[in-house]
Amino acid sequence: MKIALINGSPKIKNSASGMLLDELKSLRSGDCITEYGFHTPALPSEMDLEAFAQQDAAVFALPLYVDGVPSHLLNCLCRLEQYFVKHPSNLTVYAIVNCGFFEGNQNRHALEIMKNWCARCGLKWGQGVGIGGGGMLTGLQSVPAGKGPRKNFSAAVRQLSEHITVGKSTEDIYVLPNVPRFAYKMGAKAEWRQQIKMNGLTEKDLFRKL
Amino acid sequence: MRLIVHDLTEEQAKEILPQDKDTTIIGDNGTIHHCIGCFGCWVKTPGQCVIRDNYGDMGELLSKCDELIFVSKCCYGGYSPFVKNVIDRGISYSHPYFTIRNGEMHHKRRYENHFRLSAFFYGSDITEQEKKTAEGLAHANARNLDCQTKKVYFAPTADAFRGEFE
After folding, report:
1. Do B60 and A210 touch (CB under 8 A)?
2. Domain range spanning residue B52?
3. What fold is seen in the domain A2-179?
4. Cys bridge to A58: A4, A196, A202, B81, which one at CB 3.0-4.6 A?
5. Which residue of B63, B98, B110, B113 is the best one to mutate when testing the A interface, meaning the one whose CB has the most A CBs within 10 A?
6. How many domains, in total, are found in chain B?
């Protein structure tokens, strides 16, 4: 199969979206994979839209920004829509949206936006995956896929991969991290404390009001 | 203070939006930068975006408003890229720590003000599904910002909103 993997994070390196796509890529060794980085409001300058439209599947991975799609990616989607309304394609679109909140279903509005974009472009929607606990993903790079706290994330990616293989359009899936919610919440708090201290500030500064 | 974020042209904004001293209007002057996901507005310059263009103080502006209004072209059941960009640049309004509200995880409040949120979506061919998505999105925004949704409107053109802000 020809599969496009689109990283919709504004971060060029070390993003949760990139990590999820890497895991998906590791399951698709027999396929022809083309990777795209949609990190800014402009489509990558080297992007060949005709080649993109000839893929069998496109998998977007993106972070949830204020309940929706990050603005820079919206710009890219608008540009792609302009192309697809003039150049019909058989592409099937999948999307993985990750959020910092615990509940994966908080990504549902962003997934709906991606589905509505497909409808505007005349593309087939495959499946959406809403991942909760995305804040811990990049800290799990040394944990093998499918193991320990990566277990639920990996299971979702594997399920998505199986649906890509058969070109299936199916219900979205929502994933909770397999750690207790209170532990995730406390872990996030510790992480923010550490980060502000690394910037020479104190925990009190986290509460600064302007 | 009433805060209006819109994607109208300068001429449209003058004709459609209220021009009173209690209203702050944020429009597109073509210079906005996108959020780069650095969380600097939480851990480097808390409360303020590290990108110092004209849109770096959205969190502070939100803290001073009692009404927030989005006027936006409806894009796939959400806001237009510009309006969403302004929203993305305003996350410093919230505190990075999590709290549980109505059984869901959200960000804690940084500020004490409470405002009402309205969204005015325009577009000549907004589908029923897009309306459903946009309604859900506006309510989700209100839950996350810990504010109330006042109204979600849809109209074929932004001209239809004339007089709605008085």
Report:
1. yes
2. 2-161
3. Rossmann fold (3.40.50)
4. A4
5. B98
6. 1
